[in-house]
Amino acid sequence: MANLLIKNCLMADGQSSDILIKNGIIKDISKNISATDTPKIDANHHFVTPPFVDSHFHMDATLSYGLPRVNESGTLLEGIALWGELKPKLTVDAIKDRARRFCKWAIARGTLAIRSHVDVSGDNLLGVEALIDIREEMKEFIDIQLVAFPQDGLLRANCLENLVSALDMGVDVVGGIPHFERTMADGAESIKILCEIAEKRGLLVDLHCDETDDPISRHVETLAYETLRLGLNGRVAGSHLTSMHSFDNYYFTKLISLLVEADLHIIANPLINITIQGRQDAYPKRRGLTRIPEQINAGLKVAFGHDCVMDPWYPLGSHDMLEVAHMALHCCHLTGVEQMRSCYESVTTKAAEILHLEKYGIYPGAKGDLVILQCKDPIEALRLKPARLFVIRKGKIISSTPPVEYKLFMGEKIEKEDLLFKNSS
Ligand SMILES: [Zn+2]
Asked: Does the pLDDT value for residue 275 go beyond 70?
């Protein structure tokens, strides 16, 4: 719990302010704060933002790319098969080593909260053990929320007992994968079982739901129905929802009002959805993302997750949440000014709301978690994916990156030019 005075912060409204953090909590936001006994840094009129929040990730699989082999087809199903080959070889220490390294990447890029699914199918709970340890080890630096995820299907792999054990061990959220159960009926049954468990235990729900191009994979409807039946409104998220891309338009106009009624939260994973969906299509190939603009217009909370970094499903990634938002913006035609701002919120404030994070944001009384970006505003952040000059956790600087500067040597005169920024100085 540290004290810090940050001078000359450029706030989201374009105004400059100082921010004073006392004992890890934002105490004051105003002009010309002086606090002689407090450590001080200068934001130098750069944009100060709440930290990035990744609402969907798989920390048990991350950084395992190439183990034991790479996914040659690039499909979801080969990824799941590959993960099945790797799982028997995993150890708690190996999972922890990779997860720890990954958390450092995330923190350096300004992400200070991650919801990670953890596989509970199979004959052990090594991933759960490892990630509960990492959640504790890293809590000074980053908030980790764990989801009990039956990767091989709750009913198909008969892993209800494991899922309940994982929750008993302290996993935070109930997960599932209805579209991977054997039949639509089993998928619906799994949703009912999982939502009832969450209701009894007072937990949040986040299911991988309809992660397919099948236009009649409609588990999202069941998920919204169970949410309403059990009074879980505002506590349930559907992750991926890619089949919605291919839904009949008439059906979608009926469905969206049910989603609003249930206050169902949406978590899209743009980098992975654009890569994995549409693989069986001839041209034209579907983009495969869920209907993000329509969901935003209907007033639903929409967040974006990174989902994977260098694992059986995705060979790339450095865990930069601005890359994630940038991809969504392009794939979903979200180039209007308010739409671009909304994309930024999907990796910050809206994601924080879906995770039910407390005291998140920049206001007196909020946690002193902030990131100073080398840019002027959220849209410039999306455009440039700029350096994270300072990453601050509860008033303590936990990462810094020097400002990016380009030097051009063109002819006799050496020019030093600020190429990136619209308001160069
Ligand atoms: Zn996932």
From this structure: yes
Between the CA of residue 76 and those of 71, 188, 206, 378, 406, what are the distances in Å? 9, 21, 19, 32, 40
The alpha carbon of 364 and the centre of ligand 1 are apart by a number of angstroms equal to 35
Q: What is the mean pLDDT of the chain?
A: 95
Catalytic residues: 211
Query: CA-to-CA distance for 269 and 324, rounded, in angstroms?
Result: 8
Are residues 33 and 18 in contact, defined by beta-carbon separation less than 8 angstroms?
yes
Tally of CA atoms within 13 A in the half-sphere of 396 that contains its CB: 11
Neighbour-count burial for 96-127, b at 16+ CB within 10 Å, e otherwise: bebbbebbebbbbbbbbbbbbbbbbbbeebbb
**Count of domains for the chain:** 2
- Provide the 3-class DSSP secondary structure of residue 73: coil
Q: Check whether residue 100 and residue 9 sit in a common domain.
A: no
Q: How far does residue 387's CA lie from ligand 1's centre (Å)?
A: 27
* Spacing, Cα 255 to ligand 1 middle (Å): 23
**Do 208 and 258 reside in the same domain of the chain?**
yes
- CATH number, domain at 317? 3.20.20.140
Is 262 in the same domain as 148? yes
- Domain boundaries, position 365: 4-50+361-407
User: Do 159 and 231 reside in the same domain of the chain?
Assistant: yes
Rounded CA gap, 115 and 173, in Å? Answer: 9
Q: How far is the CA of 56 from the centre of ligand 1 (A)?
A: 6
> How crowded is the C-beta side of 321, counted as CA atoms within 13 Å?
33
Rg (CA), the chain: 22
Tell me how far the alpha carbon of residue 208 lies from the centroid of ligand 1, in angstroms: 6
Residue 345 sits in the same domain as residue 367 = no
Residues 57 and 44 in one domain: no
**32-91 per-position pLDDT tens digit:** 999 889 999 999 999 999 999 999 999 999 999 999 899 999 888 899 899 999 999 999
Q: Give the tens place of pLDDT for each residue, 211-237.
A: 999 999 999 999 999 999 999 999 999
CA of 108 to the centre of ligand 1 (A): 22
Torsion of CA 385, 390, 393, 399, to 10 degrees: 90
Tell me whether residue 425 is in a domain.
no
Q: Where are the beta strands (DSSP E) in 269-340?
A: 302-304
